[in-house]
Amino acid sequence: MRPAGTGAAGLMAGVERGAAMGDGMSEEPEPDPYAVALVRGGPRAAVTVAVLALRLRGAVEAGRPGTMRTARAPAPTGHPPERSAHPLERAVHASLYRPAGMGELLRRTRVRQALAQLRTELSEAGTLRTFPPGPTLAARRLLRRTRAERPLPTGREGLSRHDVLLAVALHGAAALTLLEPRFAVDAGLVGRGGTADKGLLPHSWGGGCGGGYTDGGGSDPGSG
Fold first, then answer.
1. Residue 195 to residue 189: CA distance in whole angstroms
2. Strand (E) or helix (H) holding 114
3. Per 3-state DSSP, what percentage of the chain is helix, strand, and coil (rounded to 5)?
4. What is residue 192's DSSP assignment?
């Protein structure tokens, strides 16, 4: 059993919020990609995972260079995202009422509110500090261990939707450009159109637009 305060209700908080849980077969819940991304790379990383989740549902596509928009064609599953989707995912979808790049998306009210709620949950779980803002030491250690246990995949083959989201949550731009390269560039999540979550922006947990901490376990392999 992990000690309290390592994110039992946050970083290692079961499966994606709303995913089917009920088989009672697993003693160790799957990490929550949204919480993992927020702890590793800050708000931008968490929103990147939400955008990718919507992309995998067919609910979001790249718009004009460097922007995202809701998909024009009906998605095969969940368009708009079903109620079981993570609140951040639903907030991002609702916030793309008009196309936006990542910077604009992070400033939209519903996304900021969803990020604030996720930060509150992680703070209550002992995963994030409120002052100075950022991950706790226990959370950073747990993150490093999780990254070591789940190295960067070599491709999409055999990966579930959760696996893809978690890989991007743990490894950032390196995983995103490997698993969804065309969309990542066209939507401005990586490359000249966007900084993704490479830590190129000031760390800003309160403002919703910051990069992430880097402590050896939080930096993106091969970035920059």
1. 6
2. helix 109-124
3. 40, 5, 50
4. G
CB neighbourhood size of 15 (10 A): 15
CB 156 within 8 A of CB 179: yes
CB proximity list for 91: less than 8 A, separation 6 or greater: 50, 110, 111, 113, 114
* Residue pair 220/197 in contact by the 8 Å Cβ criterion: yes
pLDDT greater at residue 14 or residue 153: 153
Which pLDDT does position 74 carry in this prediction?
58
Tens-digit pLDDT profile for residues 109-141 = 999 999 999 999 999 999 999 889 899 999 999
What's the Cα-to-Cα distance from 59 to each of 18, 55, 69, 159, rounded to whole Å? 17, 6, 9, 20
- Residue, of 71 and 72, whose pLDDT is higher: 71
Does the model's pTM come out above 0.85? no
Backbone angles phi, psi at 144, to 5 degrees: -60, -40
Q: Please work out, in degrees rounded to the nearest 5, the angle formed at the alpha carbon of residue 61 by the alpha carbons of 18 and 175.
A: 70
Amino acid 36: pLDDT: 96
Write the CB contacts of 163 (distance below 8 Å, at least 6 apart in sequence).
153
Asked if 29 and 22 touch (Cβ cutoff 8 Å), the reply is no
Residue with tokens 């989707």: 85
33 class by beta-carbon count within 10 Å (0-12 exposed, 13-18 middle, 19+ buried):
buried
Q: Which residues of 44-80 are buried (b: 16+ CB within 10 A; e: fewer)?
A: bbbbbbbbbbbbbbebbbbbeebbbbbbeeebeebbe
* Candidate from 1-15, 100-114, 145-159 with smallest mean pLDDT: 1-15
